[in-house]
Design brief:
It is a single chain. With 354 residues, the protein is of the alpha/beta class. The protein has a domain at 3-193 and 227-254 and 295-314: Rossmann fold. The protein contains 13 helices and twelve strands. A seven-stranded parallel beta sheet has the order 3-2-1-4-5-6-10, with helices on both faces. Strands 7-9-11 form a three-stranded mixed beta sheet. A two-stranded parallel ribbon has the order 8-12. Bound molecules: nicotinamide-adenine-dinucleotide and thymidine-5'-diphosphate.
Length: 354
């Protein structure tokens, strides 16, 4: 693959993917990102002098801009990470989720379709549109239910999950109707370096380091499957190269944990790496009012990806979490810069009076 267009490459997972794509010389990389509150060019600063990396600030919903970029760079693949991604924000204000995740993906698909149709037969054969989605489209599981497979019916419960489900259906339809060579990946909760501290794991790490309360929604027994971001990026690249066109692949970390256990494990790691005399960080745990419509359990069956493409996660939850805490401890400058006024406003909005 010579050239790829990545969207949302200044966000958490997208930036990890772009950094790896350039470090491993996977391809010349164009990064189209709107730079919302979640986009951060500081994460990509090391690519400043790289002639095969190009950043463009813009919206995936701007079909004119996307068409221009596709003509100019002639990529063999598009990897669509761009999205509004935080469930709590989708509950507070869903509009942007519909605009970017649904309408934006639609516009991106339209521009991609016209570009793909203009290519030579051989280039059409080679082209891929990879759409990054979530396990949340499958809804919520009870404790004894089997994990989500690629055949599990969609049952999204939050505005975020519904917007991602709509996008997944559009991607499916563009393959079925127009023959666009699409691939869809549905992954579980990611964690690792450069995650914006509105999500559970970085929020807990940073609050623990600062001696602030560690907020746990409801009874803390909601279960998520945790996937280390680098394992996720490797899986995406593998699907891009070897996935079967039109197919969906589930990606999971094989690490199901209740939220309370996640937070307690972080506390133990922080106790070791940043000890305070006579103090256990777990004493900061605070149970607060639950999220409305909070899905009880997600679990991913990633047998298909392992069996068909030979993927295997390299990190288990303990090793991945240890690396993540170490990363946040050694990147205080990155952390300080992302926690701006807008971040403080969100923390106030989501947690005060709860
Ligand atoms: P993120 O919120 O950290 O980053 C999203 C990026 O998209 C930001 O850089 C933002 O500026 C950009 N963006 C938003 N709207 C845009 C638009 N209209 N046009 C162009 N760029 C835009 O998200 P993330 O955690 O990196 O997630 C990436 C993808 O993976 C998303 O599609 C998300 O739904 C999916 N996903 C994430 C997780 C997770 O645990 N983080 C789990 C499952 C699936
Ligand atoms: P989050 O990181 O927001 O991801 P998602 O909602 O997409 O799974 O939350 C992970 C889990 O942690 C989820 O069950 C909600 C819970 N949670 C808390 O208990 N406290 C918090 O402050 C946050 C942000 C999340």
């Amino acid at each position: 693959m010579e050239t790829i267009l990545v969207t949302g490459g200044a966000g958490f997972i997208g930036a990890n993917f772009v950094l790896k794509a350039r470090q491993q010389k996977w391809a010349e990389t164009i990064n189209l990102d709107k730079l919302t509150y979640a986009g951060n060019l500081q994460t990509l600063a090391e690519l400043g002098g790289d002639p095969d990396y190009h950043f463009v600030q813009g919206d995936i919903g701007n079909a004119e801009l996307v068409t221009y970029l596709l003509k100019k760079y002639q990529p063999q693949a598009i990897v669509n990470f761009a999205a509004e991604s935080h469930v709590d924000r989708s509950i507070a204000s869903p509009d942007e989720f519909i605009q970017t995740n649904v309408v934006g993906t639609f516009q991106l698909l339209e521009a991609s379709r016209f570009y793909w149709q203009s290519l030579s037969p051989q280039k059409r054969e080679e082209f891929r549109f990879l759409h990054v989605s979530t396990d949340e489209v499958y809804g919520s599981l009870d404790s004894a239910d089997p994990a989500f497979t690629e055949q599990t019916p969609y049952a999204p419960n939050s505005p975020y999950a519904a917007s991602k489900a709509a996008a997944d259906h559009l991607v499916r339809a563009y393959h079925h109707t127009y023959g666009l060579p699409t691939l869809t990946t549905n992954c579980s909760n990611n964690y690792g370096p450069y995650q914006f501290p509105e999500k559970l794991i970085p929020l807990t790490i940073l609050n623990a380091l600062e001696g602030k309360p560690l907020p746990i929604y409801g009874d803390g027994q909601n279960v998520r499957d945790w996937l280390y971001v680098e394992d996720h990026c490797d899986a995406i690249y593998l699907v891009l190269l070897q996935g079967q066109v039109g197919q969906t692949y589930n990606i999971g970390g094989e690490s199901e944990r209740a939220n309370l256990e996640v937070v307690e494990t972080i506390c133990e790691i922080v106790d070791r790496l940043a000890p305070k005399p006579n103090f256990r960080h777990s004493s900061l745990i605070t149970f607060i009012k639950d999220r409305p419509g909070h899905d009880r359990r997600y679990a991913i069956n990633c047998h298909k990806l392992k069996q068909e493409l030979g993927w295997q996660p390299k990190e288990n939850f303990q090793t991945g979490l240890q690396k993540t805490v170490e990363w946040y401890l050694s990147h205080s400058e990155w952390v300080d810069r992302v926690r701006t006024g807008a971040y403080k406003d969100w923390i106030e909005q989501n947690y005060s009076g709860r």
